[in-house]
């Protein structure tokens, strides 16, 4: 496929898609973009506020449009929000692109994010909710990805290198 992002990073919240994406873009000499950032810029408020004010369904509609626009326009490294792959049309759009799934287990998630209440989908019982989210999503990340890179115990630099090695 010609055009479109060079690499698309998918995976759960807190796995380091933005940090690793910035490093990858630097090493590949291209730009980094992330769809959560696009939504925040376009809406002028935080993702958490959008969830609270208008609900998850509204956020997902914004996200679907943001992902479609970014895949059409962006030629560098693109990171998607953790739940973007829930949408079947989005998954279809990803076919033919170099999609990398950054994975981590629940212990790594607890270390990285503290699994604290700052993320709207993990506000009640973070560990349990994280496990449930992953049980519902793991197969979708795997379905869209050409490569899975495990991030457990690795620094962002090491993860970026592993992604480059897999390209
Ligand atoms: C979400 C992940 C978040 C953000 C929103 C919903 C999810 O993005 O889009 O809070 O459903 O997993 P990050 O994966 O960039 O944290």
Features:
transferase; binds shikimate-3-phosphate; five-stranded parallel sheet; 167 residues; alpha/beta; 8 helices; Rossmann fold
| Sheet having the most strands | 5 strands, parallel
Query: In oligomeric terms, what are we looking at?
Result: single chain
Report the CATH C-level class.
Alpha Beta
What is the count of DSSP helices, taking H or I runs of 4+ residues?
A: 8
Report the mean per-residue pLDDT as an integer.
91
What would the CATH topology be?
A: Rossmann fold
**Can you tell me the residue ranges where pLDDT is under 50 for at least 5 consecutive residues?**
none
Strand content: 5-15%
**Rg, please?**
15 Å
Query: What's the arrangement of strands in the largest beta sheet?
Result: 2-3-1-4-5
The ligands bound in this entry are: shikimate-3-phosphate
What is the β-strand count? 5
CATH architecture: 3-Layer(aba) Sandwich
Order of helices and strands: EHEHHHEHEHHEH
Q: Any idea what the shape is?
A: globular
Task: Describe the fold and architecture.
The model has no long low-confidence stretch (mean pLDDT 91). The protein has a single domain, classed as 3-Layer(aba) Sandwich (Rossmann fold), CATH 3.40.50. It is 55% helix and 11% strand. A 5-stranded parallel sheet has the order 2-3-1-4-5, sandwiched between helices. Helix 2 packs across helix 4. The two termini are 15 Å apart. It is α/β, with parallel strands linked by helices. The site of shikimate-3-phosphate has 10 residues, from loops.
Nutshell version of this structure?
The protein is of the alpha/beta class. 55% of the residues lie in helices and 11% in strands.
């Amino acid at each position: 496929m010609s055009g479109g992002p060079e690499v698309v990073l998918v995976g759960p919240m807190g796995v380091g898609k933005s940090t690793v994406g910035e490093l990858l873009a630097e090493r590949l000499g291209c730009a980094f973009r992330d769809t959560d950032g696009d939504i925040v810029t376009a809406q002028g408020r935080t993702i958490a506020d959008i969830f609270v004010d208008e609900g998850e369904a509204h956020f997902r509609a914004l996200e679907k449009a943001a992902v479609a626009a970014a895949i059409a326009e962006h030629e560098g490294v693109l990171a998607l929000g953790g739940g973007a792959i829930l949408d079947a049309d989005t998954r279809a759009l990803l076919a033919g692109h170099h999609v990398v799934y950054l994975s981590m287990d629940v212990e790594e998630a607890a270390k990285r994010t503290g699994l604290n209440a700052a993320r709207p989908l993990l506000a009640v019982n973070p560990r349990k909710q994280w496990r449930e989210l992953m049980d519902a999503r793991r197969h979708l990340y795997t379905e869209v990805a050409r490569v899975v890179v495990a991030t457990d115990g690795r620094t962002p630099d090491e993860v970026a290198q592993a992604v480059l090695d897999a390209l």
